[in-house]
Amino acid sequence: MGGKILLANIEIPGIRDFDVYRAHGGYSAVERALREMTASQVSTEVTRSGLRGRGGAGFPTGLKWSFLDRKTEKPRYLVCNADESEPGTFKDRYLMHHLPHLLLEGIIISSYALGVKTSYIYIRGEFKYLVGILEKAIKEACQHGFLGDRILGTDFSLNIYVHPGAGAYICGEETALLESLEGKRGNPRIKPPFPAFKGLYGCPTVVNNVETLATVGPIISMGGEAYAKIGRGKSTGTKLISACGNINNPGVYEIEMGLPAEDFIYSPEYCGGIPNDKYLKAVIPGGSSVPILPADLILNTAKGEKRLMSYESMADGEFESGTMLGSGGFIVYDEDACIVRNTWNLTRFYRHESCGQCSPCREGTGWMEKVLSRIEHGLGKMSDIDLLVHVAKNIEGNTICPLGDAAAWPVASAIRHFRHEFEEHVLHPAEVLEKESRVVKNRRFTIFEGSLK
Amino acid sequence: MLKVTIDNIPVEVEDGTTILNAARKIGGNVVPPAMCYYSKLKGSGGKCRTCLVRVAQSSAKDPRPMPKLVASCSTPVQDGMVVQNLTSPEVIEARKGIVEFLLLNHPLDCPVCDQAGECDLQDLSFGYGMEETATEEERREYPVIDIGENIKLHMNRCILCYRCVYVADQLTDQRLHGVLYRGDVSEISTFIQNSVTNEFSGNVIDVCPVGALTDKTFRFKSRVWFLKPMNAHRECGKCSGKVAAWMFGSEIYRITGRKDQYGELETFICNECRFEKKESTDWVMEGPRHIKRQSVISSNHYEEMKEQSIIHPIEGTMEKKE
Amino acid sequence: MENSTIINHPQFKREGKILAFSSDILKKVHSLISRYPDGQQKSALLPVLHIAQEELGGFLSVDIMDYVASLLGIQPIEVYEVATFYSMFYLDKMGKYVIEVCRTGPCAISGGEQILAYLQEVLEVKTGETTPDGIFTLKEVECLGSCGTGPVMQINTEYYEKLTPGKIDKLLEDLREYASKDKTDDSTWVEKFC
To answer: pTM of the entire structure?
Structure first.
């Protein structure tokens, strides 16, 4: 498959090591940025590229950088958000595992553009094995003069440190991440003030996702305009999609934005279709938080157009018949999947991961989980279904951070598109449970050969 | 000065003022309820979400509405901002939802709770609560513990407003209690058997919006509405010595700080004044405190003694009777 | 932090033994602290707690947390608050190997539920329990970020992916052997950081 930008060199043996990475054109973007460009020129290229945050929200990166408070005397920080914990998403892990130097290159160039002297990579604690890989890469970059004092003989100095989390999904939210980095509980901060003004240690801070930062190097190499030509509309460039669930080839794929979802699911180049000749039932295309869509709506929009892998096309039809591209965690469900069981499972996740700071999320996630558990285990009532809609509606939009929305959307969308399954659970619990246990027993353990590790 | 309109009432406030404080400047029904915000505690607010309001116009420059309801206690006003509190059905609906969440695990043990009659959650439920509860789940339960010689913690009643944590952080030199665990099992605790003994620790009782932190020296002594709050003061080397003394006849049942119309303390008081000075001879009585007419405490509470008037019998009727 | 704290660090006792990092590890802890600006040593709390848990007995007892608080110059309650928030910190004694099985969405539909059931069967413990020999503790955790290679579990922070009952049998056998030789195939947090 052509058109790879981030993963172009991933097949090269030893690309994780500095020497190999360098021999294949690595760090030339740093040289170009530091030697030939001013800081504001770098920012301009990133803005021109139309790059949007790859962590899930899709906020334009250039615009985010432009908010950074440059008037204050305080130091500025760039924090790399490597707290990848959204169920279904494992692209950042893949990237850091195979191409740690690509990330470092992006951080160095971005720090140069933002006037940052210290940068932290906040990585989720479970990825302990990656801490060693990143620390080694940092050491190599220091030895070759790409990090530390006076990089490449210029006035620009930068240190990058790896900081592990310790098991909290909420720390993927940027202000919770900053709290955690300061050695506190991962409670999201009340905004305003935004991190661009008061971030880490009260200083102006930019928090960017791993994939976002890794894309900065290639953008500098190829130029912002050339990057913007790739993709479709306002979804420029390529995106890493981590595909999992009931598909033949789970793994991380780099796709050009605008690829039809149908091609992504069925093409042997990507997911390779559904195993065991089963039918496609539903897809959660952007990590567990985004609304689930039934097969017909993921293949085609409500207007009858082909659904594409881009921010706009995924959102087509809003939540009524659309969803979000999110972080690109593409979870596929086949005909045997039980939507109720799956929704309960995800809600249990959000209940476990709620920080407990604000009341709608703290109480609402637990409430939904209890009700869903009742329905799933055959103890539900018809009124419970509307109760779930009611609770989800009261959480949505009323919380401090987006975790509330992330917990409410899967429940609301599952009921919107699969209400009959919930009703079936309430009306015929015995039959449903019997079928489920049969499916669970028959599910093969490993149906695929993934590409990680 | 910035011009803001809240529920169609214009007000001018200084730059940096929050919507809630702008509303307090207007006063009355316009003021959104606040369960976690406390103007005297830095960093408080934003958590309970009861003060959510709708911003119909962000500013004069940017007339678009804000996409979501915002917490009025932590959102600064902008010039030309138009805010809806009671005039927005969306806000009322959201607030009803929040109250439902706050009550979800609340034990509703008001009949045996010392806070009943002066409880913010009671007031809020009266204003926005539903008649019936939609939940049938079991409520989470914690044991009742002492967090200090004179302070009782009923974690079951706690709504996790964090005010008591801020008090310990900002008023005492060593914080011994905090919020532990996370999500719907998070709790206020000292983690180990640790006695909160600091001189100002008693203020956690006054800032608590519910009956989670109560005064052990007053425990089960009386319902607050049988008591008469009096302003009283004494010479105190540690605090201002200005308190509210809650009297039953000439007996002092408890001492609290003086609370303003938003339930916030005027000044924080020390533990000696609060827990140890219970004789009426300890205090100089100033006079009865003002209690809102709507409060249950106002019944039988006379704020001033009118000059004794003598009822003159109407002559005719008197004659008739005789 | 002043250098003097390396020499004069407070010592805590557990079961009669003095509880403290060895001087080698203490040096590394101090180099970790130096990664954060002056006065922000609290930032090192998470990494130091990871190291403490690993080096000082596999879980965070109150005295370990008090020790870490004193190293960083913060209040003990600040450590308790943090240690109870994050799911990777254990507050109770654990088995030598903590088996954490992912139970979240994508893992669940690719066999995670059976893996958990199988482990419960062969280890004869329920979730949250430790085997009587003290070698294994079984836990359920939320998404480990390995959704494409599920079912997955983590044992003492190492990943084991694409699990089958056969793989688990072999793994448990190996670990039992390691345990008897008191050796581990993990590299430690301290090693990762240098």
So the answer is: 0.93
CATH 1.20.1440.230 residue spans of chain A: 339-441
Residue B244 falls inside a structural domain? yes
What topology does CATH give the domain A18-229?
Rossmann fold (3.40.50)
Q: Are residues B192 and B124 in the same domain?
A: yes
Residue B299: Cβ within 10 Å count = 10
**A90/C145 Cβ within 8 A:** yes
- Which one of B35, B47, B125, B140 makes the best mutation probe of the A interface by having the most chain A beta carbons within 10 Å? B47
CA distance B19 to B83: 8
B49 contacts on A by Cβ (under 8 Å): 358-360, 398-400
Q: Which CATH architecture has domain A339-441?
A: Up-down Bundle (1.20)
- Residues A348 and B263: their CA atoms lie apart, in Å, by 37
**Percent composition of chain B: helix, strand, coil (DSSP 3-state, to 5):** 25, 20, 55
Which residues partner with B57 through β-bridges? B82
Note the residue count of chain A.
453
* Residue C157 Ramachandran class (φ > 0 left, ψ -120 to 50 alpha, else beta): left
In this predicted structure, what is the pLDDT of residue A10? 93
* Residue A335 sits at the chain B interface (C-beta within 8 Å): no
The answer to whether A164 contacts C114, with C-beta atoms less than 8 Å apart, is no
Could you say which of B180, B182, B192 has the minimum Cβ distance to residue C62? B192
Same domain, B126 and B212: yes
Nearest to A31 by CA among A121, A145, A193: A145
Residues 76..105 of C with a Cβ closer than 8 Å to A: which?
78, 81-82, 85-89, 103-105
Q: In chain A, which residues fall in CATH 3.10.20.600? A: 233-334
With a cut of 80, say whether residue A381 has pLDDT above it.
yes
C38 contacts chain A (CB < 8 A): no
* d(C-alpha A32, C-alpha A36), whole Å: 5
B213 and B233 part of one domain = no
For residue B124, the domain's CATH number is: 3.30.70.20
Q: Does C187 touch chain A (CB under 8 A)?
A: yes
Domain shared by B72 and B132, yes or no: no
Contact A398 B185 (CB under 8 A): no
pLDDT 10s digits, A267-319: 999 999 999 889 999 999 999 999 999 999 999 999 999 999 999 999 999 99
Domain boundaries, position B64: 2-100
Which tens digits make up the pLDDT trace of A79-122?
999 999 999 999 999 999 999 999 999 999 999 999 999 999 99
Q: Which of B45, B160, B181 sits opposite A190 (nearest CB)?
A: B45
pLDDT digits (tens, 9 = 90+) for C42-88: 999 999 999 999 988 889 999 999 999 999 999 999 999 999 999 99
Q: Do B180 and C75 touch (CB under 8 A)?
A: no
- Measured CA to CA, the distance from residue B189 to residue B181 in angstroms comes to 10
User: Is residue B213 domain-shared with residue B247, that is, in the same domain?
Assistant: no
For chains A and C, CB pairs below 8 A equal 191
Tell me, which fold does domain A233-334 have in CATH? Ubiquitin-like (UB roll) (3.10.20)
Provide the domain count of chain B: 3
